[in-house]
Protein 1
Amino acid sequence: MSVSARPLKARPCAGLRGTAAMPGDKSISHRALILGALALGETRISGLLEAGDVLNTALAARAFGAQVTQDGPGAWRVNGTGVGGWAEPSDVLDFGNSGTGSRLMMGAMATAPVTAVFTGDASLRSRPMGRVLEPLTLFGAEYEARAGGLMPVTLKGAARPICVDHLVSVASAQVKSAMLLAALGAPGRSRISQTSLTRDHTERMLAAFGAEISVEPLPEGGEAVFLTGEADLKATPVAVPRDPSSAAFAIVAGLIVPGSEVSLPGVLLNPRRSGLIETLIEMGADISISNARESGGEKVGDLMVRASSLKGVEVPPERAPSMIDEYPILAVAAAFAEGRTLMRGLDELRVKESDRLAVIVAGLRAGGVTVGEMQDGMIVEGRGGEVPGGGHVATHLDHRIAMAFLVMGLGSRHLMSVDDTSMIATSFPEFEDLMRHLGAQFENA
Ligand code: S3P
């Protein structure tokens, strides 16, 4: 629990109805600020997510010398320095709860001749940074971290960076992206490969900013990204689509609360982010997608979700990267389904904002659901719509755990409470208001 914890209860409620405009995508928002800060000229961003994690990235971009200005809600301007032009921050950079902001910024500064100190909240200071820092040394960067590669971290960017050929061994878009951002500042052509297909927003946005970038499939699966360094990035407008990882909570709420009908316009439908929708549809969810279109190099569409009887499924482990942030809420959906849901290939969940596997399992059990935990997954015994609820969940500074178990309370027989909702503001400050607008009932615990 944080010092100023805000506990909350969610009551079982009648049908959720209406339209909810989700906030901007978190991954794309971070990248828009960072590429804006690396580009020459003025990048105009619309629909930026104004949540704690992204605002910390904006502060860091300023600390590295970019001009970052807010013109109105979601409307931001970034005047960048050009690749290699970042200044040395005069103070420690505090990234709060954000793994993405901190790791991407480490990459972006690793090939500039500056030194910076990175820290964060108790959750971020317990997360592994060696996965990013070690490969960044290949470019010539140097670092010091606490034992186990933990923050606070001091990173010294390479004064004479060299390009690299590196295979990213973890299924992490953050590590891949950090390497690509570092490659921007290294002369020559770097190759960054990964055997799993993680989200590709960095690659798409780099292409839009004029980087020389190409992607080739690897014979053994996965792909290699080639990027030419000393890049001249040109400022370009970014329209941030609405975040599917935030929409996930409203989608599952709409499915499990009987009588619901919820519409969610303009949600990002990048296939590498759509694993939850694919899985829910396999479970029998009534989700229709209309008006599928392209916006700013990304696919978006309007979703209509109606309450549905779900059935348990086996989720293919190789789908995990495309729904890695959605397992807390998928586990809640699985609790309401008829039959068993098996989820595996989830080792990465152990190093998220909390040990999400353990925390999900504890939360489901608190709500009266039988669940088995494995090192890399879980088996949820679905209750066929009749979830007892009535439990209290410890959120461990994890925004998605708080939101998932509040949603569980909306569909259970008895209310669910969570010990702290303050972290929800790191990714989705409007969560409570938007859900109340649809008919959700929350009360202070
Ligand atoms: C993100 C990548 C994922 C995800 C995170 C956002 C990104 O982390 O969990 O919320 O924007 O690249 P990993 O790369 O560590 O899997």
Note: The longest strand covers residues 286-295.
Protein 2
Amino acid sequence: MRFLIRLLGALWLATLLVSAGFAWYEVHAEQTRLIDDLHRRAALAADAVREACERLVARGSRTGYERVLSRFGRQDRAIAIYDAFGSVIEASPEVKRSLGPVSPLVGEAIQKNQPVRAFATVNGRTRLVHVVPLQQDDNAIGAAAVFLDAEYLEASEWDLWQRTAVRIGVLMLLLTGITWIIVRWSVTRPMARIAEWTKQLKSGQPLAPPPEADVSLFGPLATEVTGLARTLNRARLAAAEEARLRLVGESLWTEERLKQFVEIRFGERPIYVVSNREPVSHVQEGRTISELRPASGLVTALEPIMLACGGTWVAHGSGGADRVVGERIGLPSDDPAYTLRRVWLTEQEEAGYYYGFANEGLWPLCHIVHERPQFRADDWEYYRAVNGRFAATLLEEMEKAESPIVLAQDYHFALLPQLVKQSRPDARVALFWHIPWPNFEAFGICPWQEEILLGMLGADLIGFHTQYHCNNFLETVERTIEGRVDWESFTVVRGQHRTWVRPLPISVAPDDAEPLPDRAALRAELGVTTEWMGIGVERVDYTKGLPERIRALHRFFERWPEYRGRVTFVQIASLSRSRIPRYRALQDEVREAVRAINEAFGERGWLPIVYRERHHDHSEIRRFYRAADFCMVTSLHDGMNLVAKEYVASQSDDEGSLILSRFTGASRELRDAWVVNPYDVEDVAGAIHDVLTIDEDERRSRMRRLRAHVREHNIYGWAGLLVSELAHIPQPTTLQRG
Ligand code: F6P
């Protein structure tokens, strides 16, 4: 109510000031106009009287003055004629008896021999008195005065002020009414709803903000409250889950447990993640800037850790609108838990370091998919320079941190551990290699193999997904550089420095998002009407075996034609690294293969493959996972493959089946999947047939075991293991230079 009164008071004052100002101006202009008109009329009448009187004087007749009075005098215009001494000769009856106040004016006109005018009250009325001298041979011989009634001037001014007062009154009434209605509808009511909504949020119900609330007015408030409620809710769920696990005696890794574990192991020591891909990029469409979460297993895995432990994530700012949003931002934007520090790269740096050396050199070098690596000296120089840039940014970020923990990610940063460790021996540096490590002969074709290994060995800990990749790495080290490989402890010793090499199979967070509708409802929502649905989710990359998968589907529909029209395979494809010609060629190849199979088997209202080539956010993909009866992961070589684990995690009803390439790291763990050789079309086609025909109980129990495995070996467990390995490393050791 006080707010309303203050608002109305301000509005009233403004209305009053503006209206009174304008009214004053209007009155002033009108008065000036009326007075000018009066002056003009008085002057005209006085001139006419003067002429007539001067003629009479010239003729020596002074008797005609009465005629002059009756000719020029009117009800609102009186005339008076004076002699040379200012004495009245003749005057209209309206003024005759009260000419006293006018005498000084008459005297002045005769004395100055000039017209004189002024307002005066004559006979009780305000009049304009205009006096002209009567002349003979340019000498004043008397005067004539014209009296014009000016009473109406005051009346008209008063009238204007009255109208203004009424106008202001009506305006204030209207303003009061309108303001009251607007405040009630746009502020008071929505505020009450928002208060009600906040109350519901507090009780843990995840509701959207009330729809009638004006977004520009309440948007920031709603965002803040939602963030606050989410934090509260997360904390509540985490506490409940902890309590439940304690009760059933389970020792599962959770977000909360990881947080506590990191605190116990490392106390206040801050965590720094370095990766090429940023967890969130910003893109601009028209005037709107939105957040985009990349299609990246690395981000899927690391974000939950940053949410749990906080810290700083250093990454390449690659989004089109990143610079607009900022170099250092808090994430998630609605409820920041950690800081993203962006590193800006020039186009040439990105071309040489990311597209060139990392993705045309190291990527095919480490994946055995018969793709020839390209090694160019220029690319290597950019790779070195960019590793230096990231290291410098990281060192700047860690400047005030004591004994920081650095988690460097992937093949983009082979040189960074050494650069960091040389400047900050007190830091604990781990490097996690998300892709496979080839055997030493394959790796040996890289012209800069020694520099790469020395750079990596700057780390205290190097992690791979599998023991097999650890073995390959140690063998490569043993055969390439000087240094001692201790196969007992799985470490490499160079001078004073020791690097631990460990298999750390990465994973995903347990799927505890809100429950989804059942498969049939979801499928209807997604527009899939067949009895069965399969799903594939990939970046379009030649390591993912997409053409091979399509060939297998082709073979399946060929071998078992009774399934035509009854199975739909949805392929979600996100374009990746498109500046590299090999990737563009693959995109065309996949589109062509989809077109061919759809043309070969498609019927009215049914296509074997629904190809969705665009970015899908995580919640969308989750709906596809849950709607699908089976998921196909047919990578030709893959460090781990988190799509397989995400699919399994989302099968809360145990209904789905997983077809999984034996060349993925995931196949070492997910033994209950249908493990296939993606190069063997018959094998994969047979697996599709199997998952559609398998006995329901067996299918469910396989998925149950798969889910239990992913739940028990989740991303918090991975991070816990990494932290515990890092923590077990004795006092950081000095790095040998060179
Ligand atoms: O597998 C290696 C990796 O870096 C993953 O972490 C990630 O899923 C993928 O490659 C993303 O590639 P990019 O960042 O080049 O799009």
Note: The longest helix spans residues 2-58.
Protein 3
Amino acid sequence: MDVDVVKGIGDKKKDALETFGISSVLDLIETYPRRWVDRTREALVSQLEEGVPTMVVVRVDSSSSFKTKTGRKMVTIRCSDESGKLSLTFFNQNWREKQLSPGLTIAVFGKPERYRGYLQMTNPIVDLIGDRTGRIVSIYPQSEKSRISTWDLAKWIESTLKRCEQRGIADPVPAEVIEQVGLVSRGQALHDIHLPESMDVRHAARRRLAFDEVLRVQVMLVARKLLAAQESRGFTHRTKGPLVGAFNASLPFPLTGAQKRVIDEIVADISDASPMHRLLQGDVGSGKTVVAVSAMMRAVQGGHQSALMAPTEVLADQHAIGIRRLLNGLVIPDDGNLFGGREVRVELLTNKVTGEQRRRVLAGLVDGSVDIVVGTQALIQEKVEFRSLGLVVVDEQHRFGVDQRSKLREKAVGAGDGLTPDVLVMTATPIPRTAAMTVYGDLDVSTLDELPPGRTPIVTEWVNTPVAESAMWQAVRDAIGRGEQAYVVCPLIEESEKLEVASAQTVFDELSGGELSGYSIGLLHGRMPPAEKESTMERFRAGELDALVATTVIEVGVDVPNATQMVILDADRFGIAQLHQLRGRVGRGAIASTCHLCTKTDDPSPRVEALVSSTDGFVLAEEDLKLRGEGTVMGTIQKGRSDLRLASLQTDFDLIQTAREVAVRIVGDDPGLSAHPDLRDEIDLYFTAEQEDNLLKG
Ligand code: ADP
Ligand code: MG
């Protein structure tokens, strides 16, 4: 139902609301206050005490502005209530002069001081409350551009709620769930969040509405998952056999407990006819590759093929090398199977594989003689034909959203023999549990929470003085002197790859002629021709290069156990996850490693501090969520603004978990939900149709 059924909203206001993302009545009442002003706790101006932060409600009398001697712009607002006068001073907030025009009633919160006999507050918190007199006044987000004021919104929302109060607001959540979770009704919650009688009732209201948000997301994810399972037929892989046996026997190390457990989880999935959609998450160095290869061996065992998709060519190369090394000429035992008696064939297919070699690989994929192909996204995007693609492993660097992932799945179906391949998604970075359940909620999740034994913990040092910096280069030279190797990661320049490359070149030149002169140094960046990139990487792997100056192209997957020194320049430009990945490039062998995080000043850098204080990727992921907030973590799942407004991935873990369980029940009871072609619409309907129906009609 369009918002213009609400009294006072005409065409003009309707358009303005639209730019705000509000088009239906439901959107309107789901626009929640940003803050509440508790007028039962306001003071009179005459009661203000110097130095004690207090709220007063005053009327604006006049405003003026001027530049201070130091060039700062200062706005002064004179206000009063019936008991006295107060002036407000704002620095560098020029817009206040326009915002706080004479006649307005505002709530001001700040620390009163006396200046030349006048009572004043400097940069107080200001809320426009119009002529509202309730005990608690809700403050809504306000947009200068769309000319919708917080009291406009308050008025419309209040009248809407009042109109449907008699009939009540439908509650789509089953009664037993409401009881189980201990929620107030939806009608009560909407009332209490907008028109709270006391500050306390807001908490129960928020909890209820937050639950609805996460439930909606979970119903969508669970339904999507069910739909994928219903609509596709998958492979029933033969998970035991001579090849798998030979592979296990050939492993150069015993598997960790976590690796064994996760392999069991995967085996259970792929031996079942419905396709696997599983996320494998594990910290840097936890040994995801061998888990993935172990799954691939199961596909190959039954005469099917496996594809591994990496986000970049360097990584694809790296994976191909790693897999070949792990398989080490493993022969498929001849057990009467058509493909028996030959080596497992691993091929690389990226854009730089051309000519005759490319034709051979493509032909091998069609006739089934290539067992494992490693490549970039191009593997699936191009028309590459497989004889029988049984398993796809996706090594994700940049997390895909739920939508992108289901597209990938569709493409994968076309690449097989009508059956949907099993899909294993590997994340390079651990993600917080709540985010995993939300962003990857349509996947099952396996976690490698144990590192292989024999690792020497990485020492992380924060380098932020010239003295520390020269000590760092000395440490790097000492390490090279012991036959070890170093990475130097150049400053991240997000705006321009060209600038980034230029800066890498500069760092390379400076080091060659300075701190690292006389050593053999390589340069690696995204704009180099692939062949050159590959040969540089190869020389570093082979130990011909002492140090590698690189951009973040080495972020994920590069595995050179002899590299023990990681120098990251301008470390505060990187995110936590990226720093953790980069750090994970060292400490991959038994030799002690150091990660040096360089920053220019000794300004606080919470991200660098986090890295110094923990090497646990899961701890860092939680920290990252805290520092960056939800928006970035939710990323692509957040279509429009309707997903999570009140719910928090940080604090609502229990709600999210319960919502997941409830969603499984709801979707299970109502399979029609998942059969709908556009799930999202259907789910919105599930939550809104009745709602809308009740609103205003009553
Ligand atoms: P990830 O991709 O999870 O960061 P990798 O799969 O690249 O980790 O493994 C990191 C290193 O640990 C590799 O050199 C690998 O050979 C080694 N490794 C993996 N599993 C084990 C294990 N169970 N015991 C000893 N070393 C292992
Ligand atoms: Mg890896």
Note: Confidence is low (pLDDT under 50) at residues 635-642, 677-682.
